[in-house]
Amino acid sequence: MNIDIQAIQAKIERESAFVEKITAEVGKVIVGQNYMIERLLIGLLADGHILLEGVPGLAKTMTVKALSAAIKTQFQRIQFTPDLLPADIVGTMIYDQKNGSFSTKKGPIFSNLVLADEINRSPAKVQSALLEAMQERQVTIGDTTFPLPAPFLVLATQNPIEQEGTYPLPEAQVDRFMLKLSVGYPDRNEELEIMRRMTRVDLPQASAVVSPQEIINARRAVHEVYIDPKIENYIVDIVFATRKPKEYGLDELADLIAYGASPRASIYLSMASKAHAFLSRRGYVTPEDIRSIAMDVLRHRVIITYEAEAEEISAEDVVRKIINKVEVP
């Protein structure tokens, strides 16, 4: 099978021309947080949902709103609370007394970018309604099934500090998120700029610089990014090392991992690395793309044992050891 890398490269350079425009536009509103902005774009291009974890006040919501404005898409923010019902998200049937019939009222899930704020504040019934929409890309209200708009992306946030009164997402549901991001504090200079920028009379706003159709075209181009069989084997080796660490010379991890990553990890690692290459305006995946994105794909898929918790070893520590140990092609 002959692969024309030069033709792929030319196409990727052409299709990825808008990347700088988006990052510059979001940068008008958001100071720093380059990691979060890049990962949000990866999720958007690879068609994968994202779980954002970080303390309040780190501009998670503002970043998503700025990104939505920059790509001229519909944006909805849903604040998850303990009294929320599935119908509050997906919609419901409403009875019209005048003509004695039911009509459909669509919920906020019918949008391009949906921000599920503090997703672990609502009970399982509500979480599963959202996660079904994420998986199936459709919603059933009454007897009718409605497709969700394209592009469609769910960005859910969690506060890692407060656990009281929350409903942790089951592992099977967390697995549906392509990436789990750990959002950190800005550095001192960034904080100074944030303070100055956000205390002006006129707050910065992002404008539309890309159309939704350009995003859909870019998604098709991402699928065409070339990934060498050696790189594919490297991805599978990393995932298998989470399941059978002894086979990869990681004997010390055998008692620390309760469950390794599922096949979704391999699929998402492949797609996310292609999107990472696309953002770098490259038509092919390198091992560095894999190493860069692996933590975000695997941190919520490796389940550690009680022994690991007792030794204060996190899933991130385990994933880091695996990434550093598995041989790079």
Structure description:
The protein has 329 residues and is of the alpha/beta class. It folds into two domains: 5-195 and 209-214, P-loop containing nucleotide triphosphate hydrolases (Rossmann fold); 225-325, Helicase, Ruva Protein, domain 3, CATH 1.10.8. Helices cover 46% and strands 15% of the residues. It contains 14 helices and eleven strands. The chain has helices spanning 5-15, 19-29, 34-46, 60-70, 86-90, 124-136, 171-174, 188-197, 212-224, 229-243, 263-279, 287-298, 306-310, 315-325, and strands at residues 50-53, 75-79, 91-96, 101-106, 113-117, 138-141, 144-147, 153-158, 179-182, 257-259, 303-304. The strands form four sheets. Strands 2-5-8-1-9 form a five-stranded parallel sheet. Strands 3-4 form a two-stranded antiparallel ribbon. Strand 6 (138-141) and strand 7 (144-147) form a beta hairpin. The chain starts with a helix and ends with a helix. The model has no long low-confidence stretch (mean pLDDT 86).
